[in-house]
Amino acid sequence: MFYYSDWFIDSDLTVVKNFTRAFTVHWFVIQPYSAFFTSDYIRKYCEGTGVNLHIYEIKNRRRSLKWFKLFYSTLRKVRKSNPAIIYTACSAPYFLLAYYLTCRNIKVVKAVHDAEKHSIGYQRRSNNCGSAKKSN
After folding, report:
1. What is the pLDDT of residues 55-77, one digit of tens each?
2. N or C terminus of the chain with fewer C-beta within 10 Å?
3. Which helix (H) or strand (E) holds 16?
4. What pairs with residue 56 in β-bridges?
5. Are 102 and 79 in contact (CB under 8 A)?
């Protein structure tokens, strides 16, 4: 199984570790410059778990075509391994286009990080270090 993530690493950490119970997991992490979890933290977390970790750091904005180029090149590597499934919660705009061009014959599970819709006020407060309360 190939697990592909780009932003919400906090929820991916638990999911990836649990997938190792049933699958050989190759975890492709697209690590943006503003990510909360560092690459070193992710590497240490994966030590001894059996996860095959692939980290790609990128310093461009998500709308940059360099994101597409990175998705395209990494998904070509995935395709060569011929996995049974790709699992992703990837929310980057170019991921689906790169997937379609490279791996459309491989089954994909598209997960949702958080299905509950939040108001803008809630999102702003939750990004701060203080407590996050829903605004009405």
Report:
1. 888 787 777 788 889 889 999 99
2. C
3. helix 9-19
4. 30
5. yes
